[in-house]
Amino acid sequence: VADVSETVTFTIDAIANANVNENAAYTSVTPSLSGAAPIGSVTYTLSGNDAADFTIVPTTGVVSMVARDYENPADANT
């Protein structure tokens, strides 16, 4: 039996921008994959200057943000 490197191409469908009211928590929708099914499991992560302001469920890709006081912004772009 020979081990074969298998590859697959898939995309993560875009999620629309969202407006969040001040002092309200936010939870995104679950992103969907299109194309061929991935081989193995997909793990989602966040990166960038503001990544610490959000949480993500690594197995589903759902992003959340706790309620924020926008008069005192904590993100990198103020």
Question: What features would you describe in this structure?
Answer:
This protein is mainly β. It has strands at residues 10-12, 26-27, 33-35, 55-56, 63-65. The protein is elongated, with a radius of gyration of 17 Å.
Coarse structural class: mainly beta
Number of helices: 0
Outline type: elongated
Which residues form runs of ≥5 with pLDDT under 50? none
Helical fraction equals under 10%
Q: Tell me about the biggest sheet?
A: 3 strands, antiparallel
Average pLDDT: 84
Strand order of the largest sheet: 2-5-4
The Cα radius of gyration reads 17 Å
Strand content: 15-25%
Order of SSEs: EEEEE
Distance between the termini: 57 Å
SS elements, strand count: 5
Outline:
Helices cover 0% and strands 17% of the residues. By secondary structure, it is mainly beta. The strands form two sheets. It has a three-stranded antiparallel β-sheet with strand order 2-5-4, with no helix packed on it. It has a two-stranded antiparallel sheet with strand order 1-3.
